[in-house]
Amino acid sequence: MSIGRRNGAFVCALLCAVVTAAGMGGTTPFNAYAAAQSDSKFSISTSSFQPNGDIPTRFTCSGDNLSPALAWTDPPAGTESLVLIVDDPDAPGGVFNHWVLYDLARSARRLPEGVPEKADPEGARQGRNGFDEPGYGGPCPPPGHVHRYYFRLYALDRKLELPAGASKSAVEKALQGHVLAQAEVMGRFKR
């Protein structure tokens, strides 16, 4: 059954309004929880772009599609692993996942630029992104549109121990109730 482009846009707008009214808006279901558990000393940064600034083309689908360099401060006491989720809340079909990295060693404090899709940096496993590929998939908004890209790092009180290639939804489900703190940095990109 096809609902057509015009009716499809209406249904999408209606669903977005219902989800927002129900208090489930935002880019991930963990924003409210992590904010309640936030640790102001835990932060993430990148030397690849300014916070809230433009992401250089080499980190996008229009360039070399490299993951940006990331660094973070010490996670809170009790941290057993870290999870990185990168997503775009402005995607036409809803939040689009660009990178899922989980079971990152608690001792890790950085990721280099250009993490290969088959690498397991700092003991981590890479999940599948919204392009249905392992590893990082750079920003790739529709031409003429500016989108925001959130790099969120979660400190967990356990390892997830999911197999490599897990979906974002599986990772989010597994980390529920185990988030000690969250840190984020956001960049923008327009094609």
What is shown here, in short?
The chain is an alpha+beta fold.
**Helical stretch tally:** 3
CATH class: Alpha Beta
Low-confidence stretches: 1-36
User: How would you write the strand order of the largest sheet?
Assistant: 6-4-3-7-8
Account of the 3D structure:
The protein is an alpha+beta fold and 191 residues long. The chain has a single domain, classed as Alpha-Beta Complex (Phosphatidylethanolamine-binding Protein), CATH 3.90.280. 16% of the residues lie in helices and 26% in strands. The protein has 3 helices and 8 strands; from the N terminus they run H-H-E-E-E-E-E-E-E-H-E. The chain has helices at residues 5-21, 31-36, 168-175, and strands at 44-45, 70-72, 81-88, 96-105, 110-111, 125-126, 146-156, 179-190. The chain has a 5-stranded antiparallel β-sheet. Strands 1-2-5 form a 3-stranded antiparallel β-sheet, with no helix packed on it. Strand 3 (81-88) and strand 4 (96-105) form a beta hairpin.
